[in-house]
Amino acid sequence: MFDFDATLPLMAVQFLLLAALLNVIFYKPLTKALDDRDNYIRTNNLEARERLAKAERLTKEYEQQLAEARRQSQATVAAAQAEAQKTTAQKIAEAQKEAQAQREQAALEIEQQKQEALRSLDQQVDALSRQILEKLLGPVLAK
């Protein structure tokens, strides 16, 4: 079946030369390209993980800052509301005191006017009484 003459070693040498030639021309550059691509992918993957971890850290930090800012703003709003209520209560109390003082002043003025009106009426009654007496009894007897 097989003939082992001089062609067999020649075929083996040709095969080895072809394998060496393919290795130098095709396999080494292809292997180098695959290795370079693998390194590039590995490097990019590592960088992407680092960036993702950094982005997650920053996100957590910003969320914490946002939560703190919200707490501070709520505290500020609550303090402002308390201050507004306090100020409103003070102003209402002042207005009530002022209204009470005005009522008391008005009551005093009304009382004074009433007393003046009564004195005036008394004087007018006295004057009218004298006039009536003078007309009835005469000017000499009325005194």
UniProtKB/TrEMBL annotation:
It is a single-pass membrane protein. Signal peptide: none annotated. Its main location: membrane. The chain crosses the membrane at residues 6-27. It comes from the Bacteria. Component of the F(0) channel, it forms part of the peripheral stalk, linking F(1) to F(0). The b'-subunit is a diverged and duplicated form of b found in plants and photosynthetic bacteria. F(1)F(0) ATP synthase produces ATP from ADP in the presence of a proton or sodium gradient. F-type ATPases consist of two structural domains, F(1) containing the extramembraneous catalytic core and F(0) containing the membrane proton channel, linked together by a central stalk and a peripheral stalk. During catalysis, ATP synthesis in the catalytic domain of F(1) is coupled via a rotary mechanism of the central stalk subunits to proton translocation. This is ATP synthase subunit b'. It comes from Brasilonema bromeliae SPC951. The gene is atpF2.
